Amino acid sequence: MEKTGKQLWFYCSLLIAVMLNSGRLLALRENGIVAHYWRFNAAEFGYQLLAQLGFCYLLFSLNLGRGRLARYRDNNKYLSYLSLNFLIAFFGMVLIGGVQKRVFSFNPNQIRGAFWLGYLTRYALAALLIGIIIKIVLLLRQNKQQAIENEQLKNAYTTAELELLKEQLNPHFLFNSLSSLSGVVRENPGLAQLYIKHLSSVFRYTLIKPVSSLVTVNEELTMVKSFAQLLKMRFENAFELTIDVGDAFMQYKLPHLSLQPLLENAAKHNAATLKTPLKVTIKMCGDELSVSNNLNQVDADGTGTGLANLNQRYKILMQREIDIEKTTSYFTVKLPLKHE
């Protein structure tokens, strides 16, 4: 890719140099108007062509390469970026023009000041064309980077969705869910209907919502409340969920399916009894949504991909990462929120 870029810079530089210096060839016509004011000199013409080619290539390489000048632009230091570009271009023009005027002789019929006027005009046009081409290249790069990020987002969400579905369809998960449902049906058919209602709400939210979207805190909490009811029935009320999020934060946004994996992770890796229930607390911590649970860890199979996938989705969608804190008593994950 770098080699292709340098080839592009060279051919663009050559095109600009030939285009802006081709007018000098009109001086070959001895009776022409141009020949009256300019005397064609092959060595001078070659110098002009090569000098302008080098001038153009220098600006392309400085602006489209990986040097300090490009870093100024990438870091939004536009004043420094434009000032350095102007200084480099100005001193380059003066140096090349001074050498040309000293080395080559000129037609005595040439209009006074015509040399510098024509010279600076050509280089100003060259700088303008270079700026346009640089802008086009940067836009193409931006579009390409956006396409790469979109592909990464698609892959990250696909992986996260499949991982979540795998967890939900895990035989152990299904066995516990069906066992809980069986007991509820036998003891309280009315409660069984509520269980099925919450289970369908969880699956509907998981499968119908676009996997590449941001959702409101209110939408995530609504789903989590249904999921918490399933966990309460699964652990026979040895699970407690506390939500302390003010109305002012309900329209803040976060990636779809951010909270459910955290609750499932807590239920999977901790024991829960009526004596020592599993307690999960969701609350605001500054501009982040904090999800914490008490620790009573047990061995459980797992690859840790749930948190990794969640963090990857945050990096792509929010340009931030989740914050994980673990003490001897609590495990906490802080989720950045977006306020539009």
From TrEMBL:
Single GO MF descriptor: phosphorelay sensor kinase activity
Signal transduction histidine kinase internal region domain residues: 160-238
Keywords assigned by UniProt, alphabetized: Coiled coil, Kinase, Membrane, Transferase, Transmembrane, Transmembrane helix
Coiled-coil residue windows: 136-170
Zinc recorded as keyword: no
Domain of life: Bacteria
Pfam families per the UniProt record, alphabetical: His_kinase
Any one annotated GO CC term: membrane
Residue spans crossing the bilayer: 7-27, 47-66, 78-99, 119-140
PANTHER family hit by this protein: SENSOR HISTIDINE KINASE YPDA
The protein's name: Histidine kinase
Highest classification ranks of the organism: Bacteria, Pseudomonadati, Bacteroidota, Sphingobacteriia, Sphingobacteriales
